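Reminder: ligand-aware prediction takes two inputs, not one.
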Amino acid sequence: MGVDAIVLAAGKGTRMKSVLPKVLHEVCGVPMVEHARRAAVAAGCDRVIVVVNPETEPAIRELLEPLGCVFAVQDPPLGTGHAVLQALPLIQGEEVLVLCGDTPLLTGDTLGAVVGLRRETESDGVVATFEPADARGYGRIARSGVQVEGIIEDADCTPEQRRNLKEVNSGVFCFATEAIQRHLPNVAPNEKKGEIYLTDVVNAIHRAGGTVQALGDLREEEFLGVNDRWMLAEASRIMRTTILRRLAEGGVTIVDPASTYIGADVRCEPDVTILPMCTIDGATTIGSGSQIGPNCWIKDATIGRDVRIFMSHMDQAIVGEKCRCGPFSNLRPGAVLEAGVKIGNFVEIKNAVVGEKTAVSHLTYLGDATIGAGANIGAGTITCNYDGFQKWRTTIGEGAFVGSNSTLIAPVTVGDGAFVAAGSVVTKDVPGGALAVGRARQDNKEGWMAKWRSRKAAESGEAENSTQ
Ligand code: UD1
Ligand code: CA
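Here is what comes back for the chain with uridine-diphosphate-N-acetylglucosamine:
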């Protein structure tokens, strides 16, 4: 039986005070609506239909269309039932799961349980419910035994209902497609607000002799809806703990969970150690035995086994096994370190391959370069890769030695085993095994300082006389 998901994301999200659509704000490195899509897919949904408004459509489409989502535009937004109505023509499965795009903590397990209960009980619908500490703002569940007779929105409750009905609607539903298609189009707008409420379809099904059940007693935390930036921070805090715990259970040592920020898609092998104050994000992977931190910022990096990264920054870099980086290394996109490379302080590497066991220990920029294995790049080496118009490559051979403070003006090649004398400006290719010296020759003037001092003394004497 095919299940389609409908993700409601047409709300304005004004309380976020943001130009970015609310559901595109990230929780642990992943946009909220993508969390919703993943949970729906994990629950077995075949297709995900996202209800958007005309302003947010382009940005949400850009993110989710490549991931196979389809879109229904709701214009203007006239309530949750109205939102689902827009999606009805797109449904292909026999069942439909409805969830919100701003509840990032929902799990595939819970959504799967909602779908499972509907199948098991052959109900027309199932609603996920819980009993919150504070039920204000939630629709209340009116039951008769296991059957849900209706959902009464907070604003429409009598004082008695508000007091007595503790179980609330989480906003997650599973319906038989046939039932929602039959009943939702007949739901009248709410009298007070004029909106079409999805919650009213429950009562419509009940009155027509259908059945709706509740999957109750769920954890309130999982349904946290993000309305503003503070709730976004709260959702991130909760998810962060979940991520850290999952990693710890998988054999990762997290020395200080309170100062460790790891994104939802980061993967670590067992026996990785994360020291305090690290942010590790994107699709980063870290191999066994590696130690990261303290004070690292790492995104979309592939880090091998037994690596040490200390107080460093890394974005889209590939770091081979047994490398050492930091303190204060900056690996930018396209930096590739083969095994056993050492990168030291104030070294920036961009779009460059550094060969096995090469050392780049201090104060260096390597951009658009290929460096062979076993080379030594001295302090202060700069690849001049940009002429103001175009980028050029530098190639440094295996076992080459580049002396300190060398300036390599690309395009240029330093051959295998060649030696560049310290302070050289290299403008021509250096053949393998050659010595390149590209600097002014030193000239020592014997006894020059004594003459200089006496001349200066005489001049200052004259100056004193002239001021008297
Ligand atoms: C809704 C439920 C309430 C439930 C609560 C759980 C209704 C009428 N009420 O109330 O019973 O307890 O969620 O959090 O369904 N949206 C659209 N188009 C619209 C209106 C809303 O796409 O026209 C989307 C919003 O972007 C949001 C979701 O639907 O993701 C829920 O809307 P919201 O206005 O937050 O509903 P609540 O008043 O919280
Ligand atoms: Ca809400």
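The first helix runs from residue 32 to 42. The mean pLDDT is 97. We will return to this case in the review session.
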